[in-house]
Each structure stands twice: as structure tokens, then as C-alpha cells.
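Run log, item B.
One chain of 378 residues. Sequence copied directly from the ordering sheet:
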Amino acid sequence: MTTTQEHGTELEPVEVVDAELVEDDDAPGADAVAVPDPVDAVLKALDANAEEHLNDIRPKKTKDGYARDWEIWGEFHDWLAERTGIRLPLSKITVGTFVSFVTYLDQVVEAPPNTIERRITGVTSEARRHGYTVPKEATEAARRALKPLKLDKRRQQRGRGKAAAVTPKDLRQMANAPRERAPQPGARRRRTIVVPELTRLRDKALNSLKFAVAGRNEEMSELDDPDIKPVDEGLMVHVPSVKGRPERDVPVTYGEDIDTCPVRCWRAYQEAKLAAGAAPGGPAFLPVDQWGNQGTARLSPDGVGRALARCAKYAGLTGRRITGHSARRGLVTTGRKKGKRVEKLRRQGGWSPNSPVFWEYVDEGEAFEDAATEGIGL
């Protein structure tokens, strides 16, 4: 575009270029390379080093606990995906996901409020360590959702005291509990749920085998089909290594009752599981929703523990704290009452020779053997 400029009485043409017509390549400084701010670079490096140092000096127990919290955050997402049909990334921490996490821990896992609070802290710490953003409003909302739970005396009692031992009689009662489960007083659910047959078969196999091998929740979760080998005498179970504990191979014989025989219960569940579409050679125990739909991912450690506690609840075994650990205690106490050798029981459950917990169970099983008051003329 051309215009004129007046110099005295004479007009001279002047070339004017419209700014919006300037090409990016012609703009001043277009070829310049942005130079990173050295101060920002040093600060970022110091922040990264500080984060790594703080994690290194954190006690191992705390780091292991936070790692477990992150695993449970993943299990919550598995549970959520089964209900919504959409898998959310673990990095998406929002008000909605964090409040739902609190509800899941309270209503599904039935964790005590103090445990829920610690899991919020653990997930927040691990998420930031992975480089994910944890909005302040998300943690604040989660703690607001937790606040009324901490004031509930019934919830405060969760998780207190040692796990009670279960017995074969308890397992039979659980196996034969009614399949129809009415809504609990005060629960949101208003309809009666009928436990799917596949769930019933899985829980019978899971609970009886857990008792037979004195299995930890994590060990039962990690079992695969090839780990459970049929033999003439029953089953030979390869219990995998979890959390650095030694793996072990343990024998499981036929039981005396069809409802608690771990061999028969496993075979019945295995047949039903494969008929429902499970891949051969996959996880030994799979999740099943309330409509009887079978999942593909292995049953989580928390799911293993909940199965035993839930079956005990609906069998009317109240007044005792029955958890996923009850089966381990039950094998030792029942075994000692029946005269089983201590060393056999110790190897079956994978306890170390000097485990104080194991010897506590032994003492419990021997409480009335040659009791101090027996035969002294009382």
C-alpha cells in the first residue's frame, strides 16, 4: 500500500506495510531461539532432588504403606470400571474421584476411618511422586467426606482387636448360608439380592482352600490355575512368593464334608469358572458382580479378605472379628486341637521358625491340653 508524505510543498511516496499482512517468517526476531531461564532450571532440579531425597529417607514401613495405598487406588479404579464401563486413568485425581474413593473404602472395603485417612495421604504422596497433580480442593473434599465417618462409633470399632479363628464348622455354616440377602437396616439398597451361583461356588472354594493352605490374602490373589495341581491324594498347591516371603508347595487332602472339602469345592468352581468364559491357565479366583458377570482381572487381596468376612456376616457369625487372617489362625488352632505336628502346621502356612504370631496360635490351640486345672481334685 502506498501513501504520500509532505516535505515542504512536495509530496513523496512512502511504502507502508499493514501489520496484519506480515508473514511470521518476516517478523522481527522470528529466527530467535528461546533461551530457558537458568534460575527456573536450577529450581526445578533442586525440587526434583529434594523430592527424591525425602522419599529415600522415608521409613521403609511408610514407603511400603504408601505403595499399598497406591495399589488400592488402582483396585478402586478396577471396581469403578466394572460399574461404569469406563476405565479412568490413575492420574486423574479430582473432587469426584477422591470423594468416591472415600465412599468405596467405607462402604465396600469397610475400612476404619483412620485407615481411610491414611490412604488419602498415601495416594496423595504417591501421585505427586509420579508427577501427577493433586488439586488441593480434591484432598479437602475427601477429608470433608471423611469427617462424619470419624464421629461414627460403629465405624471407629472396625479393625480393632485380633482376627478370630474360623473353624471347619464355621466354614460349613458359611457354605450353607441363605443365598438371598436382604438389605441391611439403614442401607441405601432397598431390594433383596440373590447371590449368583458362580459367586457361591467361588467363595466356597476360596474360603476352604484359604483355610487349608493358611493362605494370606495376597497369596490367594496371586494364585493361578497351574499353581493348583490335582493329584491322587487331593491337590498340591504352589503358593507364590509375595512381598519377599518364600514360596512354598503345600499338600491339600480331601475333606470329610462336601461343603468344606477344598478339593471338591475347587473342582466345582473351576468347572463353573471355565464354563462362564474364563481363560484356562489364568488367575485362580476372579471377581463376580451382583448379576453374576465374571471379570477377567484376578480377585484383589482386599476382595479375598472381604469374601471370607462377607460370608461370615451372612452366615450369622457375629460377635467375632472375622477377617481374611482368620483362616490362617484357624488352621493352626484347629490343627493343634486335633494333634497335628507343630512343624507341619508351620510349613503349611509359611511362618518363620521364630514367628511370635505362629507360636501364639499354637498356644491358643493347646490351651486345654493338660490344662492346669485338669485332674487336680477341683
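Observations after the first pass:
- The longest strand covers residues 2-7.
- Residues 60-84 form the longest helix (25 residues).
Flagged for discussion on Thursday.
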